[in-house]
C-alpha cells in the first residue's frame, strides 16, 4: 500500500515544530547557561547556538547557589513550600465547608451570600493590596508567614467551584443522610467532602500555581531573607547580581524544577483543572 | 392533675427536642460558613470598603503626628490631573490592545493544531504547557537574557536576517512595551490554548462531516462551523485575557522598572509606587478605586457587547 503524502498534515507538523521551538528555546537556554561555569563564556555564547546546546556541563553554579550564605536557597524553598501548603490546605477545608452550607444549608442568607460572591469576582486582588497592607501592618503581621497565608485562604473562586459541585449532588442522597439522623456537619464531612475530589484537585492545582507565582504581595510584606519566598528572592537576586547569569539561571532551574516535576506527574489533572475551572467558572 | 401534666408534657418535650435539633442544625451551618466568611469579610470586603473610605482621606502608611484628615474628592482630582497616572493608563491600555489579539490568535492557532491530526500530539501539548508552570519571575529573567544588548539571542536572530546594528529591546521607548507583550504572551498563552481546546472538543463532529459532504474546504469549515461554535469560548477568553492584561505588574517591575522614561509603567505599578514606595495610602486608594471601576466597567461592557453580537 502506498502512503499518501498529506500536504496539510506536513504543514501542521511544521507549524507545531515552530511553536515547539519557540517554547523550548528560552527554557533550554535557562538550563544551558546554568551549566556553564564561566561567566565570560556565557556572555560570548549568549547570541550563538551554544546558548541552547551546552558546551560544558558543570554543576559549579548550582553549588554556588546552594551554598550562598546571603541567598539561602533552601530557606526560600522552605518558606515557599510552607506558604503554599498552608494556603492551599486550609483553603480546601474552609472553602468547601462554606460552599456545602451554601448548597445544602437552610438559612435564608444563602442567596445573598452567593450574589455577593459572584459580584466580588470582578475585583482584581491587586486593587486591594494597599488597604490590605495598611490592615496587616496594624495587625503587626509584616514580615511573617501568616501575612502570606491567612489573607489568601478564603477564596470566592474556590467557594464558587465547590458550590457548583455540591449543588449538583442528588437531593435524595442528602435527604437520606438526614433521615438517618446525620447532622449537616457530618453530611459535609462524610459525604460532600470525600465526593468532591475533582474540585479539590482543581482548586489545589490552581492555588498551588498562584501561591508559587506570587510576587507583588510578598514583595511588600517581607523584609529580609527569613520569610521571603522564592519568587521575590529570584527578583532580588536578579536585581543585585545582574552580571552573574550562570548563578541566576541555576537559581531559576532549581526554582522551576519542583513545579515541572509536579506538573509532569499530575498532567492529566492539571489539564482538566484548568479547563474545568474555566468552563464552570 | 397527673393526667393533665402528662398530656401537656409530651408535646412540650417533643417541641423541646425539635428546638434542640433546630439549634444544632443552625450551629452546624454556622460552623461550616463562619471560617470562610470571617476571612472574606476581613481580607476582601473590609479592604474593599477601606479603599473607598481611604480614597477620601490623606492617610499615610506610617502614622504621623498630625491626625489623618478627610479631604473630600481631593485625591481623585489629583489622580485625574496627574500626568504620571495618565501615562500609566495609556501604557496599560496599549499593552491590552497589543497583547489581547496577539495572545488570543496564537492560543487559538495552537489549539486548532492540537485538535487536528498531528504527529507527536501529546508531546506537543506537554511542551506547550511548560510556560504555564514556569514561575513568572523565572520567565522574566530568561527573557532578560534573550533581550540582552548588543549580542543577545534575539539580536543575533536579527543579524541572521541581515539586520545591521542591534535593537535595544528594553531600553528603547518604541520597543520596550512590545518586548513585554511578547514575553507575556509566551508566558500565559497555554492557559487560553487549553480553554480553546475544550471549546473545540465541544463542537459536534457531525457538523464537520455534513460540511465535508457538502464539499466545504478547510477555511469554510473554520469560518462557518469552528468559529461560530466557539462563540462562548471566545467571549470567555476575551474577558479573562483582557482582565489579566490589565493587572500587568511583575514583568515590568522586574524587567524595566516601568522605564524607559515611564513608557512601561502600568496602573498597578503606579498604584504600588504611590501606596508603598511613597506611602501615600489615601492617594493610592483613589487610584485603586479608579482601577476597580475601569476593570469592572470593562468586564460589563465586554459582556454586553458580545451578547448582542
TrEMBL record, chain B:
This protein's name: ABC transporter permease
Pfam families with a match to the protein in the record: BPD_transp_1
Membrane topology: Multi-pass membrane protein
Signal peptide: none
Protein location: Cell membrane
Domain ABC transmembrane type-1 per the UniProt entry, residue ranges: 89-302
Predominant place of localization: membrane
Taxonomic source organism: Deinococcus roseus
Domain of life, source organism: Bacteria
Entry's transmembrane regions: 30-54, 93-114, 126-146, 175-200, 221-246, 281-301
Keywords: Cell membrane, Membrane, Transmembrane, Transmembrane helix, Transport
Coiled-coil annotated spans: none
Amino acid at each position: 500500500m502506498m502512503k499518501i503524502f498529506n500536504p496539510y498534515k506536513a504543514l501542521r507538523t511544521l507549524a507545531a515544530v515552530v511553536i515547539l521551538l519557540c517554547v523550548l528555546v528560552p527554557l533550554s537556554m535557562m538550563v544551558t547557561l546554568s551549566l556553564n561555569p564561566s561567566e565570560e563564556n556565557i556572555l560570548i555564547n549568549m547570541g550563538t547556538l551554544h546558548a541552547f546546546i551546552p558546551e560544558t556541563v558543570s554543576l559549579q553554579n548550582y553549588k554556588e547557589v546552594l551554598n550562598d550564605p546571603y541567598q539561602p536557597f533552601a530557606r526560600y524553598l522552605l518558606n515557599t513550600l510552607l506558604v503554599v501548603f498552608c494556603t492551599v490546605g486550609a483553603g480546601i477545608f474552609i472553602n468547601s465547608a462554606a460552599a456545602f452550607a451554601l448548597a445544602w444549608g437552610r438559612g435564608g442568607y444563602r442567596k445573598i451570600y452567593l450574589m455577593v460572591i459572584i459580584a466580588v469576582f470582578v475585583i482584581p486582588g491587586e486593587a486591594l493590596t494597599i488597604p490590605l497592607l495598611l490592615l496587616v501592618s496594624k495587625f503587626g503581621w509584616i514580615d511573617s508567614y501568616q501575612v502570606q497565608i491567612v489573607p489568601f485562604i478564603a477564596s470566592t473562586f474556590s467557594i464558587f467551584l465547590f458550590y457548583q459541585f455540591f449543588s449538583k449532588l442528588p437531593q435524595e442522597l442528602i435527604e437520606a443522610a438526614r433521615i438517618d439522623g446525620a447532622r449537616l456537619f457530618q453530611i459535609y464531612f462524610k459525604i460532600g467532602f470525600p465526593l468532591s475530589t475533582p474540585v479539590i484537585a482543581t482548586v489545589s492545582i490552581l492555588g498551588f500555581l498562584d501561591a508559587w507565582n506570587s510576587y507583588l504581595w510578598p514583595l511588600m510584606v517581607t523584609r529580609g531573607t527569613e520569610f521571603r519566598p522564592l519568587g521575590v528572592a529570584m527578583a532580588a537576586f536578579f536585581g543585585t547580581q545582574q552580571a552573574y547569569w550562570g548563578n541566576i539561571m541555576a537559581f531559576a532551574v532549581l526554582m522551576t524544577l519542583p513545579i515541572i516535576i509536579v506538573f509532569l506527574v499530575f498532567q492529566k489533572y492539571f489539564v482538566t483543572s484548568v479547563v474545568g475551572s474555566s468552563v464552570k467558572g | 392533675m397527673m393526667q393533665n401534666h402528662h398530656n401537656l408534657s409530651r408535646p412540650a418535650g417533643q417541641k423541646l427536642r425539635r428546638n434542640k435539633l433546630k439549634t444544632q442544625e443552625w450551629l452546624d451551618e454556622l460552623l461550616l460558613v463562619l471560617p470562610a466568611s470571617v476571612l472574606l469579610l476581613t481580607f476582601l470586603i473590609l479592604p474593599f470598603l477601606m479603599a473607598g473610605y481611604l480614597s477620601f482621606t490623606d492617610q499615610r502608611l506610617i502614622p504621623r503626628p498630625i491626625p489623618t484628615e478627610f479631604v473630600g474628592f481631593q485625591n481623585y482630582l489629583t489622580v485625574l490631573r496627574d500626568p504620571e497616572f495618565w501615562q500609566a493608563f495609556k501604557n496599560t491600555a496599549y499593552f491590552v490592545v497589543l497583547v489581547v489579539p496577539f495572545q488570543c490568535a496564537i492560543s487559538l492557532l495552537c489549539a486548532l493544531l492540537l485538535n487536528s491530526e498531528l504527529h507527536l500530539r501529546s508531546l506537543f501539548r506537554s511542551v506547550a504547557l511548560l510556560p504555564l508552570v514556569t514561575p513568572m519571575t523565572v520567565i522574566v529573567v530568561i527573557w532578560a537574557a534573550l533581550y540582552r544588548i548588543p549580542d543577545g539571542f534575539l539580536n543575533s536572530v536579527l543579524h541572521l536576517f541581515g539586520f545591521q546594528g542591534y535593537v535595544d529591546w528594553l531600553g528603547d521607548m518604541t520597543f520596550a512595551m512590545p518586548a513585554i507583550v511578547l514575553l507575556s504572551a509566551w508566558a500565559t498563552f497555554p492557559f487560553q490554548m487549553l480553554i480553546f481546546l475544550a471549546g473545540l472538543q465541544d463542537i459536534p463532529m457531525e457538523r464537520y462531516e455534513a460540511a465535508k459532504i457538502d464539499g466545504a474546504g478547510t477555511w469554510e469549515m473554520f469560518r462557518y462551523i469552528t468559529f461560530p461554535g466557539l462563540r462562548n469560548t471566545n467571549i470567555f477568553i476575551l474577558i479573562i485575557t483582557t482582565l489579566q492584561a490589565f493587572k500587568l505588574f511583575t514583568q515590568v517591575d522586574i524587567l524595566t522598572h516601568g522605564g524607559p522614561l515611564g513608557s512601561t509603567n502600568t496602573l498597578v505599578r503606579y498604584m504600588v509606587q504611590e501606596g508603598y514606595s511613597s506611602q501615600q495610602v489615601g492617594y493610592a486608594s483613589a487610584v485603586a478605586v479608579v482601577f476597580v471601576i475601569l476593570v469592572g466597567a470593562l468586564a460589563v461592557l465586554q459582556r454586553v457587547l458580545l451578547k448582542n453580537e
